[in-house]
Amino acid sequence: MDTRLLEMLVCPLCKGPLEHVRTETSRELICHADRLAFPVRDGIPVMLANEARTIDPETEGR
């Protein structure tokens, strides 16, 4: 994903910063304030609240 695009994207709910997280199986944009993970599918961020995954606060720091 283009670094310039990542710098411009913000959380659609709180307008806060997002962290780009890559794993072997997925890519997500994380909003720590709202504890949501927005998926990145085929290099395109899906910035819809109903598509976001809720992050468990106990496992967020791991």
Structure description:
The protein has 62 residues and is mostly beta strands. The chain has one domain: N-terminal domain of TfIIb (Single Sheet). It has one helix at residues 3-8; strands at residues 19-22, 27-31, 36-41, 44-45, 53-54. Strands 1, 2, 3, 4 and 5 form a five-stranded antiparallel beta sheet that branches. A hairpin with a 2-residue loop joins β3 (36-41) and β4 (44-45). The protein is globular, with a radius of gyration of 11 Å. This is UPF0434 protein SNE35_19935.
Q: What is the SS-derived class?
A: mainly beta
Number of strand elements: 5
* Span between termini: 24 Å
Unreliable stretches covering 5 or more consecutive residues: none
Strand percentage: 25-35%
Could you tell me the mean pLDDT?
A: 89
CATH fold title: N-terminal domain of TfIIb
Biggest sheet features: 5 strands, antiparallel
CATH class: Mainly Beta
- Helicity, as a percent range: under 10%
Number of helices: 1
Q: What does the overall shape look like?
A: globular
Question: How would you summarize what this structure contains?
Answer:
Belongs to the UPF0434 family. It comes from Roseateles agri. It contains 1 helix and 5 strands, in the order αβββββ.
